[in-house]
Amino acid sequence: MKLGIIGLPxxxxxxxxxxxxxxxxxxxxxxxxxxxSNIGNAAVPDVRLAVLEKMYTxxxxxxxxxEFVDIAGLVRGASSGQGLGNKFLTNIRxxxxxxxxxxxxxxxxxxHVDGEIDPLRDIETIxxxxxxxxxxxxxxxxxxxxxxxxxxxxxxxxxxxxxRLKEILEAGKLAKxxxxxxxxxxxxxxxxxxxxxxxxxxxNVSEDEINADTPSxxxxxxxxxxxxxxxxxxVVCAQIEAEMAQLEDDEREMFMxxxxxxxxxxxxxxxxxxxxxxxxxxxxxxEKESRAWTIKxxxxxxHAAGKIHSDIERGFIRxxxxxxxxxxSSGTYNAAKEKGLVRLEGKEYIIKDGDVILFRFNV
Length: 363
Description:
This protein is of the alpha/beta class. Helix content is about 40%, strand content about 20%. It has 14 helices and 12 strands. The strands form 3 sheets. A 6-stranded mixed beta sheet has the order 2-4-1-5-6-7, with helices on both faces. The longest helix is centred in the middle third of the chain and has 30 residues, at about 120-150. It is flat, with a radius of gyration of 23 Å.
């Protein structure tokens, strides 16, 4: 899973990226500090792993991970090459979803490319550039299909879809608003349109606002916009997250307690990203390693086995499965087995979040 972090310059993207991935990407008070995409991995928080580690005395614990890409700040005209536009719009296409960081804090020491804070204008600036980039891609594809359709009439349906997309984008609307059947949905996925990607909005606020009883006007504006788009939103203070990322676990808990924070913004971001993309985790546990594995919701047991190793998928016999809660309440795997809580599932079994699984297979 890869998430692209986007937004205007100086909104806190690189600070957030550093906090998520424990990286040290330069974050300064001027545009285009980021000149190359930075890539890093963040662990998916999962308290179940610590419990399994203790139960099995595991020598190693491996959480699921999400890959984040810190993309240079986009500016007005990015779709036509302004700033570092074209290069980074291409990088965004490779992402599964987008984290759109929106500046909601006032700070005279941190310049804004448009001179003043206006979250909705900032969102519209980014949306417009994504729309224009998609429109350029659609128009070029229409030109190619128009030539090929003369000898391949099966492309007629794709051409109809492209023409509808062109009309939507020219109207300044996002591609995700298009009504598509199953065949058209496959074409859309293959095209990887920027405005068809799931988006998670991150309202970046000041330290003083993170525990505010009521959201500021800036945050409220982003909340209303995200709600209208059917998109998730979370409020974060990238500066606080950056400070917490430098602390040891016990110091971090104390720091959060002093600030009155129950859950870090980054944990919320990762959990929301997981849900946004329809992902779940199944677990494997033993003396050697306790580990979380990321799969799409609805994945069958045989394909989940392939996440561990292709040999396990090919030689799949069965999946010995127990719900995490049942395992923990039983105290041990053998106790859960004696109670009849360990199930023998076949290839077609749909994996549930939190399933603890032992795969049996032929070599």
